[in-house]
Structure formats: structure tokens, C-alpha cells
Design goal:
By secondary structure, the protein is α+β, with helices and mostly antiparallel strands. It has a domain at about 285-390: Urease metallochaperone UreE, N-terminal domain (HSP40/DNAj peptide-binding domain), CATH 2.60.260. The chain contains 11 helices and 15 strands. It has helices at about 5-10, 10-15, 25-35, 45-60, 65-80, 100-105, 120-125, 155-160, 300-305, 365-375, 385-390; strands at about 145-155, 160-175, 190, 200-205, 205-210, 220, 235-245, 255-260, 275-280, 285-290, 290-300, 310-315, 315-325, 330-335, 350-355. The chain has a 4-stranded mixed β-sheet with strand order 10-11-15-14. A 3-stranded mixed β-sheet has the order 1-9-8. Strands 2-7 form a two-stranded antiparallel sheet. It is elongated, with a radius of gyration of 33 Å. The termini are far apart. Residues about 80-135 have low confidence and may be disordered.
Length: about 400
């Protein structure tokens, strides 16, 4: 992916979203399109594979707030014509005409850059080095792209924390050349064009342009005899299994980052990161609000009126809660320290909501007892409703 791609490619269109789309909308569209076009779901379909690459490339930019902002700035700048050719030299020092292809070394063969670099700001600071011929630093082997995976956890595992194996089919370091791209028994050699610097410098009028070396793509080395397994890239698609630790209290929708466990960089470059998206399966009894667990417990009318001691389950045993006499339906009782226990010592509570159950049918004896109870009980206070009722009488 080159900096020139940022100008020529419409990543919003690739993901099927508007430029004003929120981060959640971009993520949702990416996941849908990635699932539909994934090579595992479309074996032998080169169009689906290209679509998957385009969607992944677009999300690598739009899914990162900083890169998205730089991408929008660059597209806006070049779209406004700020760097179009001007034969009269309007706005250009010394009246020199300027072509956007000068930024990338021509329409073809532009140097490859990954998004581990500085993006928009570094691009211009390296181009306009000022007539003194300042040097740009070598890019070196490109950083690998980040990888995303999704894992579904049981409710109790998410609360307590768990370590699970995660199997991925994704690019990994080539076992034959160990990532340097060279045939076993050989090593990459210094680029004869840039002499290992990774950049070349040329003068044009009052400007001195430093750009990644086209011969070695800015790495500083070239592979004369390519590895027969990875064909010089240093990476191959493989199945690998990682043990991922999910901390206690991990929440639904949370993202776990594993640094350096993503796609390996080309020819020994640093690996990207692995981001694991967590989905928590609902529990048949418990819910969750932050670090508090929630539970709804039914009680009888008699228990609500007279009060009772209520035994309720927790994730690690039971507790007894006192229901005071005259408790209304919907009242919440709190069992302290029976919620989510964090690694840093923070502990949530168990919040028990009482639900007074009204029976649909009662026996004759129960009805007689209720009628006797009603005769001894004053009616509910409804004076605030009487005036409105009289208006419709």
C-alpha cells in the first residue's frame, strides 16, 4: 500500500459507507464484507480474494482514527488542486511547475509503504527537505498488518477470566527462511542503488526530493535468491494456535490486543498486532451492569407483605438476603462483593430485583382469606386521581 493509494483509492466506497460514517458503522460494514469475501468462504475465487484485500486495506486506514484523519486531509488537499501543475508557477517557489507524480516517483513503480509509518505529515516533511538536500531516513522492512479475530465466551468465564486456545489461519513467518525472504544458505544483500540507505535523493529546481528507493522498496536490502516457499516475502499463510488470556471482568464487545501476534512484516519486518473481539454469551440467570451482576427473584404476595429471608444463588455459592415487611415489587436488594472481581482488587455487587408474583388462580380457602384481609385493609390512596375521574363521569 503506497501513499499514492491514499489519493487514488476511495476507502469509504470500498467499505460501502459515507464519509461521515461513525467508527461503529465502519467496523460493522467491514466485518460484514470481510465475512462475505473471506478466501475460506470462497475457495478458488480470485475476485473474492481481491475484494477481501481491498476491504482489509480500507479498514486498516478508516478503522484507525489517526490514519483516517490523515487520509481525509490528504484527499482533501489533493482534491482541492493545491498541487496541480501550474505553468505560470502560481504559488510555487521559483515558478517551477509541479506534478503530483513527483511525490511518488512517477505513475508506476511507486515505493511501497505500510501504515506503520508517519503517514501524511511524514510524507511532506520528507519531500520538501528544503534546497539544502536534507536526507530522509530509511524505512526498513515494512511492519505487518494487524489481524482481527472474534471469540465467544461463556458468561461465567468472562466474569472469572479464562485462558483459551485461539486457532487462526493467517499469514505467518516462513519456516524455511525464518522471515528474511532469502533462499536457505543465502542472505539479503545491500541494495546497489541506495547502498543500504533505503532512500534516494534527487534535485528538481529549488527542491530536493528524498524518496524510498524503488529498487529495494525502501528496505535497504534485496533478495538475490528468493526463498522457494514464500517467494521472497518472508511470510506464508498458515494455521497457528495461540493461548489467549482473557482477564476477569472482560465485557461483551471489548477488544483484547496482543502486541506482535498479527501478520508478520515483509522480509523480517516487525509483526502487526492481533486484536481479539470478545462476544459474551448471555447467562440463563445472571445479567451484568458494569462490575455489578444482576438477578431477578420472584416472591409471593405474602412474602412481600410479611417479609422473609431469601436465599439466592451467586457465581460462587449462595447468600441470604432479608426482605423487609411491606416490600414493593421492583425493589432492589444488594449483596456486596458478589459481583465481578477485577485483577486490581475492584469488586462489584450482586443486585437482586424482587418481583412480586400475583397468582392467576387461587383456591376457595385462599380467596376467603384474601377477602378477609381486604376487609381489614384500608384502600390504596387514590385521591390524586379522583378529580380527573370525576371529569369523565
Amino acid at each position: 500500500m503506497s501513499s499514492k493509494d491514499w489519493i487514488e483509492k476511495d476507502y469509504y466506497a470500498a467499505l460501502g459507507v459515507e464519509k461521515s460514517a461513525s467508527s461503529d458503522e465502519i467496523k460493522k460494514s467491514y466485518r460484514k464484507l470481510a465475512r462475505e469475501s473471506h478466501p475460506d468462504h470462497n475457495p478458488g475465487d480470485p475476485k473474492a480474494e481481491e475484494r477481501f484485500k481491498a476491504v482489509s486495506e480500507a479498514y486498516a486506514v478508516l478503522g484507525d482514527e489517526k490514519k483516517r484523519r490523515e487520509y481525509d486531509e490528504m484527499r482533501s488537499l489533493f482534491g482541492s488542486g493545491a498541487f496541480r501543475r501550474n505553468a505560470r508557477g502560481g504559488g510555487q517557489p521559483g515558478g517551477m511547475p509541479f506534478d503530483v507524480s513527483d511525490l511518488f516517483g512517477g505513475a508506476a513503480g511507486g515505493a511501497d509503504t505500510r501504515f506503520g509509518g508517519g503517514g501524511f505529515t511524514d510524507l511532506f516533511s520528507s519531500i520538501f527537505s528544503g534546497g539544502g538536500g536534507g536526507a530522509a531516513r530509511a524505512r526498513g522492512p515494512a511492519r505487518g498488518r494487524d489481524v482481527e479475530a472474534e471469540v465467544a465466551l461463556d458468561f461465567e468465564d468472562a466474569v472469572r477470566g479464562v485462558t483459551l486456545p485461539l486457532t487462526l489461519r493467517a499469514p505467518g513467518v516462513c519456516d524455511t527462511c525464518h522471515g528474511n525472504g532469502a533462499k536457505p544458505g543465502t542472505q539479503p544483500v545491500a541494495c546497489p542503488v541506495c547502498h543500504g540507505a533505503g532512500v534516494t535523493t534527487r534535485n528538481q529546481g529549488s527542491f530536493s526530493f528524498s524518496e524510498p528507493c524503488r529498487n529495494c522498496q525502501g528496505v535497504g536490502t534485496i533478495v538475490e535468491e528468493k526463498c522457494p516457499e514464500c517467494h521472497g516475502t518472508g511470510g506464508v499463510t498458515k494455521t497457528r494456535t495461540l493461548n489467549v488470556r482473557f482477564p476477569a471482568g472482560v465485557a461483551d464487545g471489548q477488544r483484547i490486543r496482543l502486541a506482535g501476534r498479527g501478520e508478520p512484516g515483509e522480509r523480517g519486518g516487525p509483526a502487526g498486532d492481533l486484536f481479539v473481539h470478545v462476544k459474551v454469551r448471555p447467562d440463563e440467570l445472571f445479567g451484568r451492569t458494569g462490575d455489578d451482576l444482576t438477578l431477578t427473584v420472584p416472591i409471593t404476595f405474602a412474602e412481600a407483605v410479611l417479609g422473609t429471608d431469601l436465599r439466592v444463588p451467586t457465581l460462587d455459592g449462595t447468600v441470604t438476603l432479608r426482605v423487609p415487611p411491606g416490600t414493593p415489587s421492583g425493589r432492589v436488594l444488594r449483596a456486596r462483593g458478589k459481583g465481578v472481581v477485577r485483577k486490581d482488587g475492584r469488586t462489584g455487587d450482586l443486585l437482586v430485583t424482587l418481583d412480586v408474583v400475583v397468582p392467576a388462580k387461587v383456591s376457595d380457602e385462599a380467596r376467603a382469606a384474601l377477602e378477609a384481609f381486604a376487609a381489614q385493609t384500608p384502600p390504596a390512596a387514590r385521591e390524586h386521581l379522583d378529580a380527573r375521574v370525576r371529569r369523565f363521569s
